[in-house]
Design goal:
By secondary structure, the protein is mostly helical. The protein is built from five helices and four strands; from the N terminus they run H-E-H-E-E-E-H-H-H. The protein starts with 5 loop residues before the first helix and ends with a helix.
Length: 119
């Protein structure tokens, strides 16, 4: 499950922790591993059949920030074939992933980069 590697991902210097509603039950773990971090994980909005509109609006704002990060991973999976990765060793896989993420950042910022070159 996505939430299981969370302790390994936190190093203690975080200021904010974002996540989807799967991480909503991990508040104590986040507070323990990253005491200075604010918890920006999405909360469940439906309880007993009623929708809490305030919590829903907060989740929407948090999701806007998360979507910018998730979009990069979508580009890497779609354009450079990282949907499934063959294991070639940690160093090779890490190098390939970092290269693909760097290319994705260049690809996503291509409009701004090209605007600077044009006279």
């Amino acid at each position: 499950h996505d939430k299981h590697p969370l302790p390994d991902l936190l190093h203690g210097q975080e200021r904010r922790v974002y996540g989807d509603s799967a991480y909503a039950s991990q508040k104590k773990l986040i507070a323990g591993k990253a005491p200075r971090a604010k918890d920006f994980t999405n909360q469940r909005t439906k309880r007993k059949g009623l929708v809490d509109e305030v919590a829903r609006g907060k989740n929407r704002n948090k999701s806007r920030i998360r979507a910018r990060v998730e979009h990069v991973f979508g580009v890497v999976k779609r354009l450079w074939g990282f949907g499934k990765v063959r294991y070639r060793g940690l160093a090779k896989n890490a190098t390939r992933a970092f290269t693909a993420l760097a290319l994705a950042n260049i690809y996503l910022g291509r409009q701004r980069l090209m605007a600077q070159v044009r006279p």
